[in-house]
């Protein structure tokens, strides 16, 4: 708390900034990239530019024509680094041969045109002017080439159309294909171009279509880590690795198992709900506890599980005191016990997971209420003018709540028998589970506290009280952030880190929330300062370009041709800028 | 649309040197003389269990021919790891993704003939045959020879004639048939075996 009491307003953003945050849904998760975020949104419009960036690098390094570069890149799944590594390791001839690239001096081609050429495909003599020679040296008549291209494009093989000669591995020049096909079939030529373009997404390990339904039309490119979570400009947050909804700190496998289990168990859970019995006295549902058919309600009433009738509290092997429905017997079947224990274990985790997910949904509705509260507070004549703590607190609540709810399925698998049974002894497991649950409980307690304060009708309170709540919210924001970070530390180092066999990668903790992928700059040379070369920044649905605003140090952001949707908040306010979303140690 | 001009030329070229290659391509009868449905014939390669047989191959030309591969399958029953003993379907790369428009029906049939001499049991079409080829080559060869004798030899003595001949010599019919099968239909070998056993 001490960290935050002094300094006051200077430490926080201007009111204007925090209000911007509320008014614009697109920017309300206040992710401020440290050096420019590593994931990019690729729209239909910027796809060409994204692809050209990679083509350019390969063309320049190897002095190649575009279609050769594309052939190489398609072969190496648009992994420029891998391509360069193969080049260094195995040399150019190997690289080209593998991918079907044949480079010849331009002079060798069409050096001499025969009057007539016999085409081996149609077996006709055709004028030399109606013949095309590919770079591999094979020539056939244009009609045959065209027919070949049409068949291949229709087969969906646009990305690698090989020469017609038997056993010739060379990939045909895309310009030749385009020109010949366009003459007979303009639609198909367009389809061909689209296939080539989309290969950048479909054959690329670092680029994936956004999994939104209906599809937003975007793809996301990440820079160096596939195990991350991103937010598309359409608002969908997803795991880049498995394309499911964001699920960290669960690994992809855990999440897959969990969602499947939730589907499968829902019936069993229903069954158990049906099979709780109402207490004969207070009518609350009572679960059977253990194998004994004498059950007792929290109200103190004991009753018989078999017939539901009220009984006394004593029983012998043969009868319950005060009751004789005649069907009472101990159920000692081990298997049934075990199955039930598993189910209860699942329900334990599922209930908590679900409770937090539900809270998350409810709290999401708070955005609107919070906006009202802030505007009410602003109308008051008060020495408190900055309300960014309100929104920051709210977003901290969202993020911690999320971590908390996914920590339950994580724990279910981490300490259960499904995945790591042989990785730990029971004693080890118990120690680790205690360690983890301590952290989980601390986080839980603080998240609930934060939630309570954020929900207070503080716009109706006197200023002193508002100041108190403000301190609590700021303080709890820092605490929950730290606790989340600690929990991730524990997961990554103590728990998953010590495993022998499991391959469980989790997306790292993002104190500022899941990274919002930024619109890919249409300017494809980041170092190019010359803005004239940059086409007008494309600014699609809801992405605001802010030409009027001072963009920090200008060209340091993506070469000055930025179509960024983020306010450059850090930097413009000088050295004393602080983001409340930052953990406490940064605030000091 | 099938390039009929080319198909005409191919037929002409192929049947011109039938004496050398032994390979012929004819229009399939009963089919209104359509150029899209043909029958190819290849002789079984020498020094293989298929020697002496003549194998008919059913050829259907798709609309995209020659830019799409011709569809070929054995009309004659044959015992071979890469050819289905049931349907005659052929597992051969140039009839699939390795097809090139520069290949012709004749070169394709030559490849099929080459497949008869060099089976690829690791990429089988008929798993049963492939298993047998790998585990018990003797039995495989005998069966293949028997199938060749039975189904691919129209000109010389048919299997029934051989059975009749041996039965007339005084051997029981069931024994004659099983012995003939075990030696791949070779009349002399069967006689030898019947006498010794
Ligand atoms: Zn031609
Ligand atoms: Zn070629
Ligand atoms: Zn999207
Ligand atoms: Zn995942
Ligand atoms: Zn009760
Ligand atoms: Zn009991
Ligand atoms: Zn009872």
| Residue share in helix of chain A | 40-55%
How far apart lie the N and C ends of chain A? 11 Å
Q: Kindly state the mean pLDDT of chain B as a whole number?
A: 87
Q: Which parts of chain A are unreliable, with pLDDT below 50 for 5 consecutive residues or more?
A: 1-36, 326-332, 523-588
Strand content of chain B: 5-15%
The unreliable regions of chain B are none
Strand order of the largest sheet of chain B: 1-2-3-4
CATH structural class of the largest domain in chain B: Alpha Beta
Q: Can you describe this structure?
A:
The complex is a heterodimer of chains A (588) and B (197). Chain A is of the alpha+beta class and 588 residues long. Chain A contains 16 helices and 16 strands. In chain A, strands 6-7-1-16 form a four-stranded mixed sheet, with helices on one face. In chain A, strand 13 and strand 14 (310-311) form a beta hairpin. In chain A, helix 13 packs parallel to helix 15. The longest helix of chain A has 33 residues, at 463-495. The radius of gyration of chain A is 32 Å and the shape is elongated. The termini of chain A are close together. The relative contact order of chain A is 0.12. Chain B is α+β, with helices and mostly antiparallel strands and 197 residues long. Chain B has two domains: 4-151, Ubiquitin Conjugating Enzyme; 159-196. Chain B has eight helices and four strands. Chain B has helices at residues 4-16, 18-21, 105-117, 127-135, 137-151, 159-168, 173-182, 187-196, and strands spanning 24-27, 37-43, 54-60, 71-74. A four-stranded antiparallel sheet of chain B has the order 1-2-3-4. Chain B is elongated and about 60 Å long. The N and C termini of chain B lie far apart (61 Å). The A-B interface holds A 120-124, 144, 147-148, 150-151, 164-168 and B 3, 5-6, 9-10, 64, 66-68, 94, 98, 100-103, 107. The structure holds zinc ion (ZN) (7 copies). One zinc ion (ZN) binds at residues 304, 306-307, 309, 323, 325 of chain A.
């Amino acid at each position: 708390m001490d960290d935050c009491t002094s300094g006051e307003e200077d430490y926080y953003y201007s009111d204007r900034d925090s209000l911007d945050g509320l008014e614009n849904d697109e920017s309300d998760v206040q992710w401020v990239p440290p050096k420019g975020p590593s994931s990019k949104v690729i729209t239909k419009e910027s796809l060409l530019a994204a692809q050209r960036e990679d083509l350019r690098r390969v063309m320049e390094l190897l002095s190649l024509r575009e279609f050769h570069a594309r052939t190489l890149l398609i072969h190496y799944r648009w992994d420029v680094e891998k391509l360069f590594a193969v080049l260094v390791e195995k040399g150019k001839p190997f690289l080209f041969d593998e991918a079907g690239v044949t480079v010849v001096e331009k002079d060798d081609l069409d050096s001499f045109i025969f009057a007539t050429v016999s085409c081996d495909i149609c077996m006709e003599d055709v004028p030399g002017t109606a013949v095309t020679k590919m770079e591999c040296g094979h020539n056939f008549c244009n009609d045959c080439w065209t027919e070949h291209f049409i068949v291949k494009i229709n087969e969906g093989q646009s990305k690698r159309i090989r020469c017609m000669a038997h056993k010739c591995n060379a990939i045909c020049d895309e310009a030749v294909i385009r020109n010949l096909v366009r003459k007979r079939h303009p639609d198909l030529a367009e389809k061909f171009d689209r296939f080539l373009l989309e290969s950048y997404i479909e054959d690329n390990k670092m680029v994936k279509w956004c999994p939104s339904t209906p599809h937003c039309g975007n793809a996301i490119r990440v820079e160096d880590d596939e195990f991350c979570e991103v937010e598309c400009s359409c608002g969908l947050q997803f795991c880049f690795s498995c394309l499911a909804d964001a699920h960290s700190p669960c690994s992809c496998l855990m999440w897959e198992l969990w969602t499947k289990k939730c589907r499968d168990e829902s019936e069993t859970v229903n069954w158990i709900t049906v099979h709780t019995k109402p207490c004969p006295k207070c009518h609350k549902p009572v679960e059977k506890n253990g194998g004994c058919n004498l059950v007792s309600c929290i109200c103190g009433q004991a009753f018989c599980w078999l017939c539901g009738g009220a009984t006394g509290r004593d029983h012998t092997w043969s009868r319950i005191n005060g009751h004789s429905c005649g069907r009472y017997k101990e159920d000692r079947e081990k298997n049934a016990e075990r199955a039930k224990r598993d189910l209860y274990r699942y329900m334990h985790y599922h209930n908590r997971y679900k409770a937090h997910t539900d809270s998350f949904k409810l709290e999401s509705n708070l955005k609107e209420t919070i906006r009202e509260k802030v505007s009410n507070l602003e109308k008051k004549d008060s020495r408190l003018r900055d309300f960014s703590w309100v929104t920051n607190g709210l977003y901290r609540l969202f993020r911690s709540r999320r971590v908390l709810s996914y920590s339950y399925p994580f724990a279910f698998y981490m300490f259960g028998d499904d995945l790591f049974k042989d990785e730990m002894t029971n004693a080890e497991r118990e120690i680790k589970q205690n360690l983890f649950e301590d952290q989980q409980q601390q986080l839980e307690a603080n998240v609930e506290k934060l939630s309570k304060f954020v929900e207070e009708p503080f716009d109706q309170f006197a200023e002193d009280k508002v100041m108190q709540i403000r301190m609590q919210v700021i303080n709890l924001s820092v605490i929950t952030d730290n606790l989340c970070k600690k929990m991730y530390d524990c997961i990554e180092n103590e728990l998953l880190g010590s495993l022998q066999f499991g391959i469980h990668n989790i997306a790292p903790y993002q104190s500022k929330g899941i990274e919002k992928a930024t619109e890919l700059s249409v300017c494809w040379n980041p170092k190019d300062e010359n803005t004239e070369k940059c086409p007008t920044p494309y600014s699609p649905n809801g992405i605001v370009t802010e030409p009027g605003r001072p963009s920090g140090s200008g060209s340091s952001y993506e070469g000055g041709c930025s179509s960024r949707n983020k306010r450059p908040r850090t930097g413009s306010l000088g050295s004393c800028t602080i983001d409340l979303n930052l953990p406490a140690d940064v605030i000091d | 649309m099938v390039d009929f001009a080319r198909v005409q030329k191919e037929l002409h070229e192929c049947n011109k040197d039938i004496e050398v290659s032994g390979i012929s391509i004819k229009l399939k009868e009963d089919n209104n003389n359509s150029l899209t449905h043909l029958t190819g014939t290849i002789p079984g390669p020498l020094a293989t269990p298929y020697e002496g047989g003549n194998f008919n191959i059913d050829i259907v030309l798709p609309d995209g021919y020659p830019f799409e591969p011709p569809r070929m399958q054995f009309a004659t029953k044959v015992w071979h790891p890469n050819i289905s003993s049931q349907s005659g379907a052929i597992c051969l790369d140039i009839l699939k993704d390795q097809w090139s428009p520069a290949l012709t029906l004749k070169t394709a049939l030559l490849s099929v003939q080459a497949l008869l001499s060099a089976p690829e049991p690791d990429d089988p079409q008929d798993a049963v045959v492939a298993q047998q080829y790998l585990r018990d080559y003797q039995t495989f060869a005998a069966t293949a020879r028997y199938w060749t004798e039975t189904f691919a030899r129209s000109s010389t003595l048919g299997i029934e004639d051989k059975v009749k001949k041996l039965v007339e010599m005084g051997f029981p019919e069931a024994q004659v048939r099983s012995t003939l099968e075990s030696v791949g239909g070779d009349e002399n070998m069967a006689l030898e075996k019947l006498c010794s056993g």
